[in-house]
Write a structure and sequence with these properties.
heterodimer; A: alpha/beta; Rossmann fold; 35 helices; 57% helix; B: alpha+beta; Jelly Rolls; four-stranded antiparallel β-sheet; 5 helices; membrane (chain B); ligand-gated ion channel (chain B); ion channel (chain B)
């Protein structure tokens, strides 16, 4: 294991862990094209983790940080900069030489390095050297700039990564003091300037300082007195400017903190936006923000004032010095102590002095600014009680076998009702224990202590004789499963969330070839360079061995069994029915002939519907020769679905091929007329209806805001003035309106049988002219599985009639039973695994989220399972759920937190807590 | 099967007699047109009522629960509205309706009907007038029945 060298005294365990994990392999399953090889090998933080880069606190000063991690590169940059300087100097001198020596010169031929040149060839040589130097100088500058930029970006990446790692190392109680709204800008925007500065950090002051010294030396050599005059303002500047700058630094600090608060306030307003609306507090929040913005303005204004005052002072001082030159120098010249030529040379040298001095001053201000930003960020990432780095990154897992024992444990969460004192208990290995107590009794704290999520203030929590404090996250997070009162569901699919608890480290490697391999090499090299993690995100991360299954299919099956056990399977099945799935792109489904089986159910269903008059009255199936009154006009006309799920059939008239088809078939005029009739009726019906009632938006084809626009279109359409015609966009809107018409629902009397017939006839033409030629559409075909339709629509292949009561529910029940009979329920439920749960699971109900979290925990197959406040009701259903959970945990330790004492009677052991103390610890012998 | 003939029927329903045509068209448009087969239930006594039925075509039996099972007490025919009590006040269905022939029915949901009343107070007035007439008649019937009973 690669962390071995930084871990103290864990060598033997490391070796053991490696032995355990050397069977790392990846299931075939979906990733047929991704070949995987065995032995994860040295998958870890780039090369070895350098002692000191991780274990200690962060560098408090920006310069120490820069020097520590980029000293070599900084010196290199300095060397290149120094190299550029003489080239630039020669480049400035050469034109003079060309004009004075080559063009206006005499005494030719000239001899250089024993070569003789006449005037023309001398000119050519000088000009060519000029060209070479131009190329060289600019090339070096380009190289240097890229090099600096790259160094800055790498250092920035390293800094950001380390900051994030530190966030992960914070202890849980620390998160009560900080908010994400403050942390996010620190890691993202606040350190951004640091990256731009790093490349300049050493080279610029070294070079400019050097130049300053050289120029000063020249002046001193001319006359020490004048030299003193030249630097006469430096002591004043050196004293006053830092004083002024210090105030600016303090202000910048204040500004950074203020902006952080603004970010936090905005973030909090977004999270609690429902509360803002529910309480009409938008004015309060706006004023609050306005106040913060004013503070920001004030600070900024103050900074400007001081910054520009410093600039003013500096310029003033610089121009004051020549005053001394003229006075002292003039006096010396008049007295005859100095030649006029020397005075002029000194004045010229002083002018050159101003450049470096200005640069240095700007640099000084930049350093002050960036350094304060760095410090203001870094100080937040060094809490005293941060977890040691080994806890986070070590990959050594020990097996937690044995009793769970708490010895005189005390803990304080920092508020009343969040503390426990002097808890001593023993939960024998493999038994189920209920921890009973209302909120604020210390129940949740005891369970979190048992999970190793928080650390006791006093006492020890041990499992099998091992103190949880000394164990790494690799052990705690894999050997213990914990579901707390507030579960978090990750943005992603249900599958992502189910298998989340198995994604500890990548299992196996992805085999890459050619360009992909080179790109991966580069990616790894960069990770090494910046001490980032070099784990391959595209590899398989699901630890099948930990879940106790052979391959991915078995893992899916296990997940499904658990979903059934917590009664979430029916929900996942329904989500699966609603999902779109392309069986040809999914190897597992292709193997199991999913598409063909769906088609078999479709056929059986259509037979059953045909033979059962009750069912046939509830549905209208797709039939190539028949108009479907329960479907929209667009579906009836095109008899196809767009392959792009974002494109609705009602908006396809904007596609060029569809427009051509409509024009050629002459349908556009007819559809436009229908759309116009619909618009007329809508305008007539809803003209006097107010917007508030919601009638318009629920029932109309158009929204309140669109109404005036359609009134305009209607006026134009009726107008006899040939010039005031409808635009193309207007026509398309009318056609779009017609497309939305579902004749059985909207009984507007705009469709007659002749029109229906015409539309059915147009289908064949559309199929031939558009669908056959374009990949934008897939034709309805009773014998073909359409990936663009939901699985449910593929099964029914028609519509439940809109004019029959509860037709949808009744036909769904029939579909459900037929799916069950054909053994398709499970594959469809698996399709539901790919359902996207929305941001933080927002598309699932609270109950679904909790159940999903329970399945996630159970799937980990951990030795100790801790559930807090899950299925704690006294009803029969919840009681059965608890029995099921006990059964699933069978043979492993289960800690179950609940508030009702009666719940505890069902478990082997019942521990009742009150105000952070154990009230009762009883064997139930259940 | 268009709004026009639905409006024709609506106009024959006493409850909507005084209401002008555009509003009846709107009422028809926001209602769902449903088809019921013979023997199919429109609603069941005791369940929560969320819509009224306007019978466009066909007839239905009105049944009530008795200790001996469901018993037919009346029937409703074309051009009548049933279940309107349920959409004006929250009471459970007072009877069961079963289609005795094939029926075409307009169902008006409670929410939409109330929105319509809010939107057009003259409809509310008309509904009030009809209900008041009914109440007056019921009161008169009750008085008559009482006087018979007193005799």
């Amino acid at each position: 294991m690669c962390f071995g060298n930084v871990l103290r005294g864990q060598q033997s365990e490391g070796a053991q862990a490696q032995a355990m994990r050397s069977d790392g392999r990846v299931a075939a399953g979906e990733g047929a094209e991704i070949k995987t090889v065995t032995a994860p090998g040295d998958l870890c933080y780039g090369a070895r983790v350098q002692p000191g880069t991780w274990g200690e606190g962060m560098e408090k000063s920006l310069f120490r940080f820069i020097w520590r991690y980029s000293a070599r590169q900084q010196i290199y940059i300095l060397l290149i900069t120094v190299l550029i300087y003489p080239i630039s100097y020669v480049l400035l001198e050469l034109p003079k030489l060309i004009v004075n020596d080559a063009v206006q010169g005499e005494d030719f031929p000239k001899e250089i390095w024993s070569f003789e040149f006449d005037q023309i060839s001398y000119l050519v040589v000088l000009c060519v050297s000029f060209l070479v130097l131009v190329v060289l100088s600019n090339g070096l500058k380009l190289y240097l700039n890229v090099y600096k930029g790259r160094l800055g970006e790498r250092m920035l990446r390293r800094l950001r990564f380390e900051l994030f790692q530190r966030v992960l190392r914070f202890r849980l109680p620390h998160f009560r003091k900080i908010s994400s709204g403050e942390i996010i800008p620190m890691i993202t925007s606040e350190v951004e300037d640091v990256g731009g500065f790093i490349g300049e950090a050493i080279a610029l002051p070294a070079l400019q300082g050097g130049m300053l010294v050289v120029q000063l030396g020249f002046i001193f050599m001319q006359d020490p007195l004048l030299g003193l005059a030249a630097i006469s303002s430096y002591p004043i500047q050196g004293y006053v400017i830092p004083k002024l700058q210090r105030k600016v630094v303090l202000l910048s600090r204040e500004r950074v903190k203020n902006v952080r608060t603004i970010a936090d306030k905005v973030g909090e307003s977004i999270t609690g936006v429902a509360e803002i609306h529910a309480n009409d507090t938008s004015a309060w929040h706006s004023s609050d923000l306005s106040e913060r913005l004013y503070q920001n303005f004030k600070i900024r204004y103050e900074i400007f004032n001081r910054k520009y005052f410093i600039k003013f002072l500096n310029n003033f001082m610089n121009q004051l010095t020549p005053f001394f030159f003229y006075l002292i120098g003039g006096y010396l010249v008049i007295e005859g102590d100095l030649s006029i030529g020397a005075l002029l040379a000194v004045i010229a040298a002083y002018k050159d002095l101003a450049g470096p001095w200005k640069e240095l001053l700007a640099y000084y201000q930049l350093v002050a600014d960036v350094d304060v930003k760095y410090q203001t960020v870094v100080e937040n990432f060094d809490p005293a009680d941060i977890y040691p780095v080994e806890r986070l990154i070590a990959d050594d897992k020990v097996t937690l076998e044995g009793d769970l024992v708490m010895k005189n444990v005390s803990f304080s969460g920092g508020a009343a009702g969040q503390e426990v004192s002097d808890i001593s208990l023993t939960v024998p290995s493999g038994t189920a224990c209920a921890i009973i107590g209302p909120d604020g009794s210390g129940r949740s704290e005891v369970l979190q202590l048992a999970a190793g999520l928080v650390s006791p203030v006093a006492g020890r929590v041990e499992i099998g004789g091992r103190d949880l404090e000394d164990l790494t996250a690799a052990t705690l997070g894999r050997e213990i499963a914990y579901v707390g009162g507030a579960v978090h569901i990750w943005t992603g699919t249900i599958r992502d969330n189910l298998f989340y608890g198995l994604r500890h480290r990548p299992v196996g490697e992805v085999l890459r070839e050619g360009e992909a391999a080179a790109e991966y090499q580069r990616w790894q090299a960069e990770a090494r360079e910046t001490r980032n993690l070099a784990y391959d995100l595209t590899a398989s991360w699901e630890d099948l061995a930990a879940a106790g299954v052979e391959d991915e299919i078995a893992l899916n099956a296990r997940a499904m069994a658990l979903l059934k056990a917590v009664r979430l399977e029916a929900d996942v099945y329904r989500l699966g029915l609603q999902s779109r799935l392309d069986p040809s792109r999914n190897p597992t489904l292709r193997q199991s002939d999913f598409g063909a089986r769906i088609l078999a159910v479709r056929q059986a269903l259509s037979k059953r519907i045909a033979s059962d008059p009750k069912l046939s009255g509830l549905t209208e199936l797709w039939h190539a020769e028949r108009f479907n009154n329960s479907a929209s006009l667009a579906e009836n006309l095109f008899f196809a679905v767009p392959t792009d799920p974002d494109l609705t059939l009602e908006s396809v008239q904007s596609l060029p091929e569809v427009r051509t088809f409509l024009k050629d078939s002459g349908l556009d005029e007819r559809l436009q007329a229908i759309g116009q009739k619909i618009a007329e009726t809508m305008v007539e019906l809803f003209a006097n209806v107010s917007g508030e009632s919601g009638l318009l938006n629920t029932y109309s084809f158009l929204t309140r805001d669109e109404l005036p626009d359609y009134e305009r279109i209607l006026r134009l359409a009726r107008s006899t003035n040939p010039r005031a015609g409808l635009t193309d966009a207007d026509r398309l809107r009318l056609i779009g309106l017609a497309f939305k018409l579902v004749p059985a629902r909207h009984r507007l009397g705009v469709m007659d049988d002749e029109m229906r017939q015409e539309i059915v006839e147009a289908r064949a033409r559309f199929l031939k002219d558009v669908v056959a030629r374009s990949s934008q559409f897939e034709a309805f075909d009773p014998k073909v599985y359409l990936p663009s339709l939901t699985i449910e629509d593929n099964l029914l292949f028609g519509r439940a009639r809109v004019d029959r009561r509860d037709a949808r529910q009744r036909i769904d029940a029939v579909i459900g039973s037929m799916v069950e009979e054909s053994g398709l329920r499970e594959p469809i439920a698996f399709a539901g695994f790919d359902y996207h749960v929305g941001v933080s699971g927002s598309r699932l109900s609270a109950g679904q989220r909790r159940r999903l979290a329970v399945v996630r925990a159970l799937l980990k197959n951990a030795r100790i399972t801790i559930l807090d406040d899950i299925a704690t009701g006294l009803g029969d259903e919840e009681k059965a759920a608890r029995a099921k959970l006990r059964e699933l945990a069978g043979g492993r330790t289960l800690l179950f937190g609940a508030s009702h004492s009666a719940v505890g009677d069902e478990f082997d052991q019942k521990i009742i807590l009150d105000q952070g103390r154990i009230l009762e610890d009883a064997e139930m012998g259940a | 099967m268009s709004l026009e003939n639905e409006v024709e029927v609506l106009r024959k329903v006493p409850l909507f007699r005084g209401i002008d045509e555009t509003k009846l068209r709107l009422l028809a448009f926001i209602s769902d047109r449903m088809e019921f087969q013979e023997g199919e239930r429109l609603c069941t006594q005791g369940e929560e009522g969320d819509s009224a039925f306007i019978i466009l075509r066909g007839a239905a039996d009105v049944l009530v629960e008795t200790p001996d099972g469901e018993r037919k007490v009346a029937d409703v025919k074309e051009n009548s509205i049933v279940g309107e009590i349920a959409i004006l006040c929250d009471v459970p269905r007072t009877a069961t309706l079963i289609a005795s022939t094939r029926m075409d029915v307009l169902t008006v949901s409670k929410d939409d009907f109330l929105k319509l009343l809010k939107e057009f107070p003259d409809i509310a007035l008309e509904v009030m007038r009809t209900l008041a007439l009914r109440l007056e008649r019921t009161t008169r019937d009750l008085a008559a029945a009482r006087s018979v009973a007193a005799d």
